[in-house]
Every structure is written in C-alpha cells, then in structure tokens.
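Hallway conversation turned thread

IA: we were arguing at lunch whether anyone had actually written out Erythromycin biosynthesis protein CIII-like C-terminal domain-containing protein end to end. Turns out nobody had. So, for the record, here is the sequence (928 residues) and right after it the structure tokens. Reply here if something looks off.
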Amino acid sequence: AAAAPAAPTPSLDARAEARASDPLEGATVWIVALGGRGEVQPLIALGAQLRKACCAVRLFGPDAFQSLAESSGLAYRQVGQGIRALQQSRELRGCHHVELLRLWVEKEVCHTVKVVLAYLEGAQPDLLIVNHFGFNIAASAWRARGIPSACVHVRAEPFPLDVKRGGMPGFLDFLHVERSCVVQADGVTPVQHTSFSEWCAWLDALPCLMGTTRLVTEALQEHRHEAAGAMAFVGSLVIDDQKPLGDPAMFGSSNEMRKLQVFLNKGSTPPVYMGWGGAVAEKGPVHMVLTACFGLILCNLRGVIATGRSGMSIELFREGIVALARSHTSITPQDIAWYVDYLESNVLFVEAAPHEWLFMRCSCTVHHGGAGTTAAALRAGVPTVVIPMTGPHYFYAHWVNVLGVGVGFDTTSMEDMSGELLAWSLRHVTNETRVRARAREVGQMLRREDGAAGALPHIRGLVGDARSGAARARWESERQLREPTTSEEEPPDPRWAVVVQETLAEAATCSEDVWVMTDDSYHEHSFLALAVGLRRAGYRVTFLGGRPFRDLAADCGLGFIEIFPGIDAWLQRPGTVEKLSGVDGERTAAFWGWFQRELAVASTAVLSAMAEATPRLLCVSRNLLGVGIAAKRRFDVPFLLVHRLAPWGAQLEPEGSDMVACEALGLELGQPPAAGEEEWASAVEPSRTLVCLPGLLRGGVPPEAAELYAFTGFWRLDGLPPCDGETEQRLDAFLGESPPAALVAWGEAVCHDRLWMLRTALAALRFAGLRAVIVEGAARLNMEALSQVARTPVDPLENGAFVESDVMFITACPPLRCLQRCACVVHAGGASITAAVLHAGVPSAVTPLFGENYFHAQVIQDLGMGKIAGDLRVIDRGSLAFCVRQVAFNESIQHMATFRAGELENDGGVETAVALVSREIQSRAGVG
C-alpha cells in the first residue's frame, strides 16, 4: 500500500504564534498529589490532560502510583510511600484510622513538603497544582519565590467549602507542617506569621477547582449553596478504566486480578462489591467480616470483598462464627460448615480492586463513603450502599439518599451495623426498580462529564497570568508585606522568672490600687478570680465589668464599676438570636455591631472613671487593649495585658477592637506606616502579658510566643455556685439515673437556628445511647425549643426521639462535681468550658466555631482528652454521634482525661498570676 503523505512540519513562526495564542503550549506545570488513591488518581488524570495540551508536567506522588503516572506519559518524582503503605505496616495494624491520618500528616506530608521545596530551589514552574493537603507548599512557593498555585479538590464534603468561606478547619495542621519542615526548608512562615483573617484572605485568593460533579451541591445545606456557587465544579477527574489494569499495585498483584476475572466470569449474576478502604471499625475486623458475609448469605448473593487494612478473610469469618456459637447455642457445627462452604463458592476476598473497571460489572456496591469511592460507584450506574466509618463519610451517605441511587446510613456507622440491616439494604437496592433506574440515569450523567477537559480553561487562564508577568508583578508589589527570614531583634528580658512565695510575701505589705477590667461576660469569672486573689494579697481592687457581676463583685469585697450592660442583656433583645442564627456574614455583622457599641461604651466609662481616680496598675483583656493604651497615654497608668485565650504569635497586631481607642490616641492603628507604630509596639511587648492557661497547653502555641508569655494556669473562683441550689439538686437526681448523660454546652456559639442545633444534639446523643443535660446558652436551647422540635419533626427518626425524662435544661454550666459525673461534654471549645472540662477530667467532643475554639479543640485532642467532631456549622448528627461514642465509651480517653486533670491540680493558677502582677507593680515603684 502506498504510504500516506507526511503531515507538513509547522514553521518556527507558526509554533511561536500557537504558543502566544495558547499559554499552555510549552508551559511547565508541577502537580503535588498527596493522599491515597482517591486523591492521587484524579490528579494523574488532570496531568495526562495537560500533557495532551502540550504542557511539560511533573507529578510528585507516592511510590505506589509511579507506574500508573508514567504510563500516562508524566514525569514522576516519588515522594514517600503514601497513606496505604502506612495502613499496611504491621506496627500500626491496630491503629485507629483517624490516628493513622494524623501520623501520615506528621511523616509523609512533611517529607513531601521538604522534597518539593528543595526541587523548587532550582526550578521555576509556571504553575503549581496542589490538593487540600498541599496548602503549605502553595503558600511557601508564593511567599518565597512568587510561584502561583491552584488547588484542585476532589472531595466535596464541607471541608474545602468552609476553607473558601474563611473557615478554620485544618489551620493548626498547616501550622504544624510549617513548623516541622517549611521553616527549615525556606525560612519563611506564611501561616505562623499571618493573622487568621489574612490566612483566610489568602485561601480565598487561591484559585480552587472542584474535581467532582456539581450534583454534589444537592446534598449541601441551604446556607452553603452560596459558597458552592462561587466554586468551579469541573466534573470528576477520571483515568481511563482500562489503564489501572496494567498496574498490579491497583489491585494487589497480577494473580489477584486473574482470580477476580475468573470469579466474575463464572457466576450467573453479577456480584456485590464490598469494601471500606483503609478504615477498620473499632469493634474490629471480625465484626466487619461477620456483617459483610451475613448480609450476602441472607440475600443469597455473590460478593467481592476488598479487605483493605482490615485483613478480612474466610479464616477470620470462621474464627468469628465459632466464637459467636459459644454464646448462641442455636448456631450448630453444621451451620458453621454450611456458611464457610457458601463463602468459598460465592465470595472472593481481594486486597484491592480497580474501582472504575470493577464497579460497572457488579450488581451494586457497598462501601464506606469515601469521596473517590462514592464518585466511582455513582459513575458505574449501579445502586450503592454507604456504611460510614468517620465524619466526612456521613456527608456522602446523605448525598446517596438525596440522589435516590441507593441507601446511605447517614445516622448509623459500621459499629452499629448488623448482617440483618445490611441484608435489608441489599434487597432494597437490588429489587427496587426505581432505585436501579435512577442509578443508571445518574451514572450516564456523570460519565458524560469530562472533568480533566473542563479544568483546562481555568488552568489556561492561570498559566497565562503567570507567563504574562502579571503574577510576578503582584508578588513584587507584596514584597514589603513578607516577613524577613531572620530576626536581629534582642530576645526580651525573662521578667516572669520569679519565686511565687517570696513575691506574695512582699505583696502582703502593699496597699496599691489595682483595676481588673474585662469585656466579656463569658470570661468574667476568671478575671473575677484574679481580682479576688489580688484582694487577698492585700491590694485594693476594683473590678470593671458587665452589669450581671455587680452583686457578685460586692459579695467578694471588690469595688465595682459597670462599663457595659453585658452580652446577656443584648441576647435577650427581640430578634438577636434570629440574627445570630443567620448565614455567616449576617451573624458576623450582628455580633460585630454589638461588639463595637459595647467597646465604645466601655472605653468611655473607663476613661471617665480614671479622671476621678487613678489606679497604680490596670489589668486589661485583649479586646480592651486599645483602652489600656489610651489610659497609659492620657493618665500615665501602666497596664498588663491578660489573655484569657491562647496567644497565636509573638506579636500582637492591631485588630478591629483596638480602633475604639483611635480617637483618644490619635493613632491610625493597623495602617502602616502608622503615626504611633513605635508606641503600639512598646505598649504590647509580650513580656507584659499574662496568659490564663496552664503550662500543659504551652505546646499548642508557637515556640517563640510560648517563651515570651507567662502561662499561669487557669484561674478559678472557689465557692462560686454556677447554678442555684434547686437546679443543683435536680441535676444530681438526673445524673444518678440510667443510662448515663452527656452535657451539651455550646455557650455563646449560635449556628443556623436553635431548632437545628437542638435536633442535631438530641439525635446524636440518642444514637450514642446517652441522655442529655443541655446548657441554654446564647441559642436559648430550652424546653420551649424542645416542644417546637416535637411539633415539627423533619425526620421520621425524630418521632419519640427524646422524651422529657431523657433531657434536662439548665441555664449555667454545672458545678465541678456534677460535671465529673457526665459521660462526656459536647462543646464548642470556648475558653471557660475548656477550662472546666480539663479540671473536671471529663472527655470532650468538640465542635468549634470561632478561631480560638480551634486552638482549644486541638489542645484537647492532642492531650488525649477528647476528639474534634467537626465545625459546628457543618456537623451532622451522624458525625457527632460517632465522636460522642468515641469519647464517652473509650477507656483510654477516660483514663487520660482523669490523668490530665490530676496534672492540672498542681497549677499555681491565681496564686501565680497574683505574684506576677505584684512583681510588675514592684518593678515600677521607682519609676516616675
């Protein structure tokens, strides 16, 4: 046959013109793929699409994916072993999957960051693409080198959406990675020396592509649709379903693949796929294999079970059923033999399997609800059953229910699953014509989406921005905002190295006037404790605070000056709770409006009082720091800054709350170069700051800050009854009944509406098998709200969910001895409740909402005294129930909580704080 004519070679001019018209032509793009199969494979698919567009692509990822990436034509740099290798290590075989993820972040993520940053030393790609584990790399690459980045999310549960909305999830993880490796590699600290608002602004500016279908937004709560609408959903990033077949790492080995193909071909009906990824139920692999196998046996179905890290097998089933037979005499040896024979003929156990290829050859899928697994199951066009293992999985279970493509157990985890319940779900999805038809319809829709091709226009714009020089110009313009890599400042004098007993002895002879001032009703008990301690040390003390504390201050022998009505008075106004229940922007505007008015009133009141009498020293809370500076400027009154919460860094930047003193100061705070910049710096030197936290929590604070601040321990006001005597008696009786009760104390946190909060709390505790003691708080969670929930159930499960005898409402946090009788405490990580649970030694399930909440939540988790359930804005009852069960019935957490409480008994607390205040007064005695 005649040879086909060769295509003409384009001229150099034509190539240059093409390159000018398409920025992707010849562009260099680096992709950092951190995670497991669900995170890495989509980025390989994106890299292959970019290579087709004539980009030079380099992909950094775990060794297990090297052959798959290279078969797609990508230059691959292996970094680490990946999370799967960690899951399979013998020494971690019994480790909980949440703890595994933490270990993986500490080891693999930090190692990857070091490798990528080292490569960036000698290269300058046009664009860096990361997933949600790679924020540190993106931040460092931009801060140190001006390399622009884009984030590609393949998970659509609330995490990435909340990050884009300025939420806090993950901030402390990014901070840990930065301390572990970014500082050593680059010398820059984009997270640590960035205020939280700046961090959120940077995340908002980071281009973000959602590598999943927009159908996922149907499962989002209404208040989240606006955030989702601003994100680019490009569709799922999928590798050709045949490509993984050439890589034995995708399914264990070539031998396993042959066994899988033989098994699929020999049966008359397609099998059921079952697999739970790398997660293992707390009840253990035996519970998992018994549940899975009995589900198949009861429905007379064939199955393929991917064992993952659990090690499920026929041998493990035999061990489990023999043990079960000892307590159930109805199970005979003949039954056991029949079960084993059935499994040997109808069930195949494999280590792993290629999802895209296998799922469409199954009658339905049963899985844990991972993002990638759920997407693959939906694309297959067959019904699916989701049995969650941990927090994000409940979101995908809910999504399956919303789409109508199967059964999602969004309120039940693997811990509570039984063979009978699994069998019911299998019968439903395989026999219900409507479900199978809907699954086919959704599968066809998703298979038409080409996420990799859909991402190209967005990436083309980013590369064009970089290659045109616009990105570099922005980076140059930000140069003055970047911190230097080294500091030549002298370390401050360690003023707080004092002997407490000697200082207190000296203080007993003093009769100086000290004013203790705070702005927040929820923290005033601690400041009141400091004031009482100073009075007992011989000082004349005046307490400046909210109206609710007037009588209490008088009972403690303190002078009192009311400087604001207090947050309780504001919360009782009509419409306030409704405003706080709105979307984030409305809630923030409402709270900030009140806060500005409150601070303005406090500023005027304090300065007016000082015109009549001048104290020797003023102790101020963080939000009244501007007032302290104004007092120093006008009346030459020195002040000490008292942190009720943890300090984030060594430097205190001006905040909105400081602007209330601008007029009195004549400064333009926060607008560098400000007229009073030097005065601000000298006024807030860290050596004059007390922190009302025990040294036990020092590890959660940046090291340079931990060395500067004085950690005194918690301040408690002994003998203060948190609730009235009658309530205390009823609470004692309630806690003495069975089953045990959990305390829900969300304090000032208000999210969505109060009925949503109450429904979530009650349903979660019901699923956890606990009764409820609920502190009314700012959301007004009370009996009236409970009656509204009962009148308007939104879910059949709410009918009869809680009766009046199962729940008790109180208006304030209970006394310490009552707190110690609770199975656990559900709270938002506020400073006061955190102090209470740490002292009581009670496990915590924390649902943080505000910035400082996340610090306290992370500290509780790091100390082993509880778990972070998830952001209060996005938590669902299934995730909360899972976390509550983890902390309330886990002996190791209970023992650790008791142990840590014992450690805190040795804290100096108020005594240490009084000694430090005394030393400050004495050091100034000779000063004019």
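OS: looked through it. Residues 111 and 377 are 32 Å apart (CA to CA).
IA: good, adding that to the notes. Residues 248-448 form a domain with the Rossmann fold fold (CATH 3.40.50.2000).
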